[in-house]
Amino acid sequence: MSTHEQTVTTHVHRDDVGARMGMWLFLFTELILFGGLFFVYSVYRFLHQTDFHVAAKSMNVFIGTTNTAILLTSSLTIALSIVALRNRKKILSLTLQGITVIFGLIFLINKYFEWTAEIHHGNYPGSPELLSQPPGHILFYGLYYVMTGLHGLHVIIGMIVIMFMMRFTIKDVITPDRMVKLEAAGLYWHLVDIIWIFLFPLFYLIT
Amino acid sequence: MINNNELSEHTSHSYSRYILVWMGLLTLTAITVAVAGVNLGDVTITMALVIASIKSYLVITEFMHLNTESRTFKIFLGVALFFIIISIVLLFSDYSKM
Asked: Is the ipTM of this complex over 0.95?
């Protein structure tokens, strides 16, 4: 009787496929959010091709490439953390989740140095130096700050979410048999990675 | 129970598989940076977007496990991408005439 009751409760309260599907649906809304910005980017770039090329010259390709590698590696570590937990290696999984958060932090620190350098060069929205440039130039930097800024915000949110997952893993809320929360957090982190995969060539590699 | 067996079988390869995918992603990043240095004119942006799409495909199918999800997930993603493609095509059917 008690086993019967247990099965009933798990069936009532659990639908992992449904949970993952819900996460994917949420990710589509994120896709539309960033998609809209990519549309704006593509139209303005189409209208101001030369300006965009010239403006992108001051982008730091080295930091951009490094950050791409960092995010790709963090995607690997969060994916591995799920495998580790599934193999019942809790400490390894926690370590990998922690490394993912640290990679996110390094990404943001690089971003901070990058933005500081740009601002130092006078390339920030509304700066007198930028406003004296052709319109395409201003648009390029406007889009650069909005798109990488919104992406950076997603990195911060992702880091907070993963830190919660670490707490859940420690408290055994997330266990090898109940790990859909961690999987959903992983999906979110991978989406953030995918957005960057497109941001990187569009802002750094168009000179 | 059957599900559990499937999982453990699946995961025995996963560490190495993920690391392979990651190496592929880094290689593609190196290629896209190298190609950007060569002046190919209009082809440059196409190349960059093709490589970015391949990378996204790898992340979606492998890291996000779309390859092992049910068909519903794939249809969802197809619809979302279809909507984005329609939007961009209609957008540029307007702007390309300007």
From this structure: no
